[in-house]
Write a structure and sequence with these properties.
The protein contains three helices and no strands. It is mainly alpha-helical.
Length: 61
């Protein structure tokens, strides 16, 4: 997700999105350990998006 799109969201929306991404990342890690993940780029993208959300939340405070 683009940083400008994230900046337009409210803090509550960002928190909900971050929670969902953390859960998705956890599931991807388990699948990766089991050898079931075909697209490992998803893991990278979810971590980066979480970092972007945390940065925006820190800026808004």
């Amino acid at each position: 997700m683009k940083i400008l799109e994230l900046r337009e969201k409210t803090e509550k929306e960002l928190l909900e999105m971050m929670t969902a991404l953390k859960e998705k990342g956890r599931e991807l890690r388990f699948q990766h350990a089991a050898g079931k993940v075909k697209n490992t780029q998803e893991m990278h993208e979810s971590r980066r998006t979480i970092a972007k959300i945390q940065t925006i939340m820190r800026e808004k405070r």
